[in-house]
Design goal:
The complex is a heterodimer of chains A (166) and B (268).
Chain A lengths: L32 H24 L3 H19 L7 H27 L8 H4 L1 H8 L33
Chain B lengths: L1 H35 L1 H7 L5 H26 L3 H32 L16 H5 L29 E3 L7 E3 L2 E2 L2 E2 L7 H45 L8 H25 L2
Antiparallel strand pairs in B: 1-2, 3-4
Helix pairs in contact in B: 1-2, 1-6, 1-7, 2-6, 3-4, 3-7, 4-6, 6-7
The chains are: A mainly alpha (166), B mainly alpha (268).
């Protein structure tokens, strides 16, 4: 009783532990430079990796996964969120979740909306192959943006011109 | 003191959350058009120079590192190194804008701009694809362009064969004599015009997203310059480092956005 030894020593009492310079900021965590340098190295390597992956097998999923790993490193180490208050983590988590929510609902509408379902003529050369295999058959005008191009409006052509083939 | 630091950081994180939501709208813009026009993105992204974008990624990552190091040195009260790191961060931001300037002036000279201003003069050239034709399309020829009067590949006289995007085995013989392309492209007019007429959507996305990001780079430079001036004035000599940390947080957000923009725009 006469020798009160506090369980938690006063910050300014003893020598400052490693990583803390001054005792009056007990929660301060100073990130050492070597740790930042390691993170920078990983980030640079991941940048090269994402370019290589895009070059060999382009994939949005892989590119976004690599970008998210990089973002996690930046947020946790560079932005100190690893040692920060959990509430700040929550703030970022909520905003990123809302971003995901917006994207999910926006894409839900576009990919399931029948009016946007157009043939992917680009990837397979669908139009060109179709016209090679079916010479003389007029393809419908997939273009919905109404440019009024030189090759006429397809609405004026008789719609039953290709119906005889069925 | 501790409470001031915590509330200052919380305020900054709340602001960064609104920044994420600002860019969320732009990412939705990107995603909706990519979902409905995947072929246009694939086609038009060939106009972008991925090496320029990659260089900017490296510059921003490095400047993000120096910004984080600046916070460490501010907390250690190492004024000389803090000033060095802030100058390096500022130099990285300036380097990013210089590369961006060259990219934008390239787009302006090629007429690959947003919306109604999209009037391309040449087909997209993709240097690394031209060197390795086996990996995919070298370039797309614009059927509405008279290539006999333009010299888009004047610097590549050895180029003889160009595969047309999306048509697989269909290839076009291009005679590059004295840098002049003499053969007419055999691209089906419907597909070529379709891709050409929709490509402006991609460039609208490109300029809105990189423009908003570039604005953040400029604002970040102002903030870094402000912290630099305060460092010279001696505001951070006595263990006060919060403004350095908050500006660094903002600069990391600029880096974060670019980490996503680079693969989404350049590496399609």
């Amino acid at each position: 009783m006469s020798d009160p030894t506090p369980a938690i020593p006063a910050p300014s009492a003893g020598p400052a532990p490693a990583g803390q310079v001054h005792g009056h900021e007990p929660h301060l965590h100073i990130v050492p430079i070597w740790q930042l340098a390691v993170v920078l190295g990983i980030l640079l390597v991941l940048t090269v990796v994402t370019v290589l992956v895009a070059y060999l097998t382009p994939s949005v999923t892989i590119a976004m996964a690599i970008a998210s790993v990089k973002a996690l490193l930046v947020v946790s180490i560079f932005m100190h969120l690893k040692w920060d208050k959990p509430f700040n983590v929550l703030v970022l988590f909520v905003s990123v979740s809302l971003l995901g929510l917006f994207l999910a609902f926006a894409l839900m509408d576009t990919t399931y909306n029948e009016k946007y379902r157009r043939p992917v003529y680009f990837r397979e050369g669908w139009n060109a192959r179709f016209q090679n295999e079916n010479p003389g058959v007029q393809l419908p005008n997939w273009d919905m943006s109404a440019h009024g191009g030189a090759h006429g409006a397809p609405e004026q052509a008789p719609p039953s011109s290709t119906a005889g083939g069925h | 003191m501790d409470q001031q630091i915590e509330s200052g950081k919380l305020g900054m994180w709340l602001f960064l959350a609104t920044e994420v939501l600002l860019f969320a709208g732009l990412f939705c813009f990107y995603a909706i058009y990519r979902a409905t026009h995947p072929e246009v993105y694939k086609y038009a992204s060939q106009y972008l120079n991925m090496w320029m974008g990659g260089l900017n990624t490296l510059i921003l990552l490095a400047s993000s590192f120096t910004a984080a190091a600046a916070v460490t040195y501010a907390q250690r009260r190492d004024k000389a190194k803090l000033i060095l790191c802030l100058w390096l961060t500022l130099a990285g931001a300036l380097g990013f804008l210089v590369v961006k300037f060259f990219e934008y002036s390239d787009k302006i000279s090629h007429g690959t701009l947003w919306g109604v201003n999209y009037t391309p003069h040449v087909g997209p050239t993709h240097a690394h694809h031209a060197d390795h034709g086996a990996h995919g399309p070298a370039m797309v020829l614009n059927p509405s362009v008279d290539y006999s009067t333009t010299t888009p590949w004047a610097d590549k006289p050895a180029l003889k064969e160009v595969s047309v995007v999306g048509l697989g085995k269909n290839t076009v013989e291009v005679e590059a004599v004295d840098g002049r392309v003499t053969a007419a492209p055999a691209l089906p007019p419907d597909e070529g015009k379709k891709l050409q007429s929709d490509a402006h959507v991609f460039f609208s996305v490109y300029f809105v997203m990189t423009g908003t990001h570039g604005l953040h780079v400029v604002i970040g430079m102002c903030a870094i310059g402000w912290v630099l001036a305060r460092t010279y004035r001696g505001d951070f000599d006595s263990g006060y480092w919060l403004p350095v940390d908050l500006v660094a947080l903002y600069w990391h957000l600029v880096d974060l956005i670019w980490i996503y923009l680079f693969p989404l725009l350049y590496l399609i």
